[in-house]
């Protein structure tokens, strides 16, 4: 600083805070990092729970009474055979499952238990545990019984297999009895029904001659066919006559003088005829009329109409036309007479057809009734004969065999259970592992400690200025501690503070700050180390920096710098001591230090005094940056009293230590007092925690490569 002006170049902002050097990670990497972080923090819970589960399993083996296992095998044939030779097979899976359930049924177990007690004389309180397993792709069952007494277990398993066979025999007997009773009842019902149909058939045959009915039905059918044929023919003739009587030229049609369309329908209808005298006279008169008209035409060519010949010829033509009309009238009367005759014949034939049809229906009804009775009789007779034959050939014990049950292997000698200490210890360890995972999940739900970058982003609205790795994670050639040394080779550690430095500089570019307060929520979160290293990082950028120990109660920055605590800040705020006489030079270029001075109990009052305001103003004029290390916010009101007078406050949270709830409470106190919080610094972050391992590894690889090339 020269004459109160900064010596930093105007364009010096090497690390823009808009693009912090945070690792970019996908969701899987974040989840993996979160899992690693949780395991690193709480691995001891898993180990403790697994050890407890393992010890519990071993204790269970030693404290539990010994168990013995006996094993036997049975085979079941699933085929069902009946006397007719047909076969029925139930679905194999369902059938075998049913048999296994019967083997484990309470009825079989209780019978076997009573039998084993009577056989061995051992009074067990409860039956041994039995387990039935089906051999894959076979109808073989493996039965296992587990209990405390080996002799009783063997006897119980053998009794189980025998009682299962007895139960199947009882079921077969009951089923056979029910089957026989049902068949007998059905035979009696069919016999009664058969007698009813026989009686009904006999009564029908008494009142009806079946042979006569059949012949009568055939004769009536033939007669009806003839009647229908005649009726059809007469109706056709009647329709033609009706058509002719409506046509004025019917005589021309009948005599063949004209050939209209209807002539085709008259072919073969010989009944439609006019008497020969009428037909011949009509044709003769018509011919004469035609000749007269032709003659009239010829004479008309040279004679006048009133010529006597012409008049006589006209009179003759008129007479012939009247005669022609007479012939037409006679022909029409003959056709009408024929038409009336056909109508009478049709009426009589239709009456006869109706009577014959009624007789045919009556005969058919009787034949249908006869056939129905006959069919029912045959059906019932067939069922009766079939069922009667089944009952006669039925042997309940030998012919109906639901399945063949055989003991393939008797119950073996009971041996100690195979699952010993190793099994129970492993099972207990697995159960402990699951319980440990569940406990960790519960703790993660209730634990609000800040551990990673994502925790800061999810819990706070303030920006994250930087992530400081734990200094113990770095290997150094020197005996370096928490404070950056002059020849410090922990490049990633130093770069983390440089990131905080550049974030502060760039964030306040439009509002330059002079004074910076570093604080936290509770002691032990690394605020003093952060303040010291931030001041060193600022000094490395050729800025004139004053580091002030503002913890007037237990400040210990003087121990790290290697100076006496007095005189210091408390002397400046309390009395006539001039502040510039209390600052001391440090081994770091451009960095000066003001110790805390003597411990005082009224630090809050001193920070609220006018001398504090005067000191801040004068120090800001002499230095480019003044960094204060303050008391934690929740410990005393010192930070709350000094914070509003400072240009910017940096809040430090320690990874794996700081509670999000307490940190929020501390930030709320600062915000209520009007302090300008620049952001948060995540301190003591282990490189392998969360996604920071990527960040740390890239920094380490980069600087190791640079050192190798140099």
What would the keywords be for this entry?
alpha/beta, disordered N terminus, 19 helices, eight-stranded mixed beta sheet, 710 residues
Q: Which regions have little confidence, pLDDT < 50, spanning 5+ residues?
A: 1-22, 80-90, 258-271, 396-400
Largest sheet: 8 strands, mixed
CATH class bucket of the domain at 448-477 and 484-709: Alpha Beta
Instruction: Indicate the multimeric state.
Output: single chain
Share of residues in strands? 5-15%
CATH superfamily of the domain at 448-477 and 484-709: P-loop containing nucleotide triphosphate hydrolases
Count of individual helical segments: 19
Assign the CATH architecture of the domain at 448-477 and 484-709. 3-Layer(aba) Sandwich
Helix-residue proportion? 55-70%
The overall strand count is 15
**Strand order within the widest sheet?**
8-15-14-9-13-10-12-11
* Spatial extent as radius of gyration: 64 Å
Globular, elongated, flat, extended or rod-shaped: what is the shape?
elongated
CATH topology of the domain at 448-477 and 484-709, anyone?
A: Rossmann fold
Based on secondary structure, the structural category is alpha/beta
Structure, explained:
The chain is an alpha/beta fold and 710 residues long. Among the domains are: 27-33 and 38-65 and 419-445, no CATH class; 448-477 and 484-709, Rossmann fold, CATH 3.40.50. Helices cover 57% and strands 12% of the residues. The chain is built from 19 helices and 15 strands. It has helices at 27-63, 92-103, 106-120, 150-207, 210-245, 250-255, 276-299, 308-393, 421-446, 453-459, 491-507, 527-540, 557-561, 569-574, 603-607, 610-622, 638-642, 660-672, 692-709; strands spanning 68-77, 79-81, 87-89, 129-134, 140-147, 404-409, 415-416, 464-469, 515-520, 545-549, 584-585, 591-594, 625-629, 648-654, 677-685. It has an eight-stranded mixed beta sheet, with helices on both faces. Strands 1, 4, 5, 6 and 7 form a five-stranded antiparallel beta sheet that branches. A two-stranded antiparallel sheet has the order 2-3. Strand 14 (648-654), helix 18 and strand 15 form a beta-alpha-beta unit. Helix 1 (27-63) crosses helix 9 (421-446), helix 5 (210-245) packs antiparallel against helix 8 (308-393) and helix 7 (276-299) runs antiparallel to helix 8 (308-393). The longest helix is centred in the middle third of the chain and has 86 residues, at 308-393. Residues 1-22, 80-90, 258-271 and 396-400 have low confidence and may be disordered.
């Amino acid at each position: 600083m020269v004459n109160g002006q900064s010596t930093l170049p105007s364009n010096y902002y090497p690390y823009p805070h808009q693009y912090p050097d945070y690792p970019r990670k996908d969701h899987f990497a974040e989840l993996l990092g979160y899992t690693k972080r949780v395991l690193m923090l709480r691995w001891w819970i898993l180990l403790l729970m697994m050890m407890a589960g393992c010890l519990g399993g071993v204790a269970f083996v030693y404290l539990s009474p010994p168990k013995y296992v006996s094993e036997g095998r049975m085979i079941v044939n699933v085929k069902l055979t009946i006397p007719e030779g047909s076969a029925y097979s139930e679905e194999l899976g369902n059938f075998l499952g049913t048999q296994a359930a019967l083997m484990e049924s309470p009825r079989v177990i209780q019978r076997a238990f009573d039998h084993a007690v009577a056989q061995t004389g051992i009074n067990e309180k409860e039956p041994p545990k039995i387990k039935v397993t089906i051999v894959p792709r076979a109808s073989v069952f493996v039965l296992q019984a587990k209990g405390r007494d080996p002799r009783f277990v063997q006897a119980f398993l053998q009794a189980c297999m025998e009682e299962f066979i007895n139960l199947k025999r009882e079921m077969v007997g009951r089923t056979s009895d029910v089957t026989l009773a049902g068949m007998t009842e059905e035979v009696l019902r069919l016999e009664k029904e058969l007698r009813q149909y026989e009686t009904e058939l006999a009564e029908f045959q008494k009142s009806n001659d079946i042979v006569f009915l059949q012949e009568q039905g055939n004769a009536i059918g033939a007669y009806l066919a003839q009647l229908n044929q005649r009726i059809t023919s007469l109706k056709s003739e009647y329709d033609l006559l009706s058509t002719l009587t409506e046509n004025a030229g019917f005589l021309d049609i009948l005599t063949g003088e004209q050939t209209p369309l209807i002539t085709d329908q008259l072919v073969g209808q010989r009944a439609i005829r006019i008497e020969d005298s009428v037909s011949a006279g009509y044709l003769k008169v018509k011919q004469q009329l035609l000749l007269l008209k032709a003659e009239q035409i010829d004479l008309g060519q040279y004679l006048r109409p009133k010529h006597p010949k012409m008049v006589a010829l006209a009179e003759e033509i008129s007479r012939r036309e009247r005669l022609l009309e007479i012939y037409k009238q006679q022909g029409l009367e003959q056709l009408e007479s024929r038409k009336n005759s056909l109508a009478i014949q049709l009426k009589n034939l239709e009456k006869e057809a109706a009577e014959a049809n009624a007789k045919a229906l009556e005969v058919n009804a009787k034949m249908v009734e006869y056939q129905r009775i006959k069919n029912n009789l045959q059906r019932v007779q067939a069922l009766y004969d079939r069922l009667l034959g089944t009952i006669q050939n039925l042997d309940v014990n030998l012919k109906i065999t639901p399945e063949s049950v055989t003991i393939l292997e008797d119950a073996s000698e009971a041996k100690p259970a195979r699952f010993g200490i190793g099994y129970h210890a492993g099972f207990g360890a697995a159960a402990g592992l699951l319980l440990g995972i569940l406990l960790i999940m519960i703790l993660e739900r209730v634990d609000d400690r800040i551990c990673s970058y994502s925790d800061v982003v999810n819990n706070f609205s303030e920006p994250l200025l930087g992530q400081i790795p734990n200094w113990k994670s770095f290997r150094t050639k020197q005996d370096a501690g928490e404070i950056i040394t002059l020849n410090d080779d922990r490049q990633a550690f130093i770069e983390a503070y440089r990131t905080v430095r550049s974030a502060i500089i760039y964030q306040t570019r439009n509002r330059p700050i002079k004074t910076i307060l570093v604080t936290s929520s509770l002691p032990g979160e690394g605020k003093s180390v952060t303040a010291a290293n931030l001041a060193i990082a600022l000094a490395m950028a050729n800025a004139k920096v004053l580091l002030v120990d503002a913890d007037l109660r237990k400040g210990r920055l003087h121990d790290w710098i290697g100076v006496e605590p007095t005189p210091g800040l408390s002397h400046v705020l309390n009395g006539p001591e001039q502040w510039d006489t209390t600052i001391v030079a440090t081994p770091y270029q451009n960095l000066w230090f003001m110790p805390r001075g003597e411990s005082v109990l009224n630090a809050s009052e001193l920070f609220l005094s006018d001398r504090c305001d005067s000191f801040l103003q004068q120090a800001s004029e002499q230095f480019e940056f003044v960094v204060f290390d303050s008391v934690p916010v929740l410990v005393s009101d010192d930070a709350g009293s000094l914070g509003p007078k400072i240009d910017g406050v940096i809040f430090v949270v320690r990874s794996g230590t700081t509670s999000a709830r307490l940190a929020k409470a501390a930030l709320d106190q600062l915000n209520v007092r009007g302090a300008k919080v620049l952001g948060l610094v995540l301190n003591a972050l282990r490189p392998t925690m969360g996604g920071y391992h990527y960040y740390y590894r890239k920094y380490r690889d980069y600087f190791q490569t640079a050192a190798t090339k140099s």
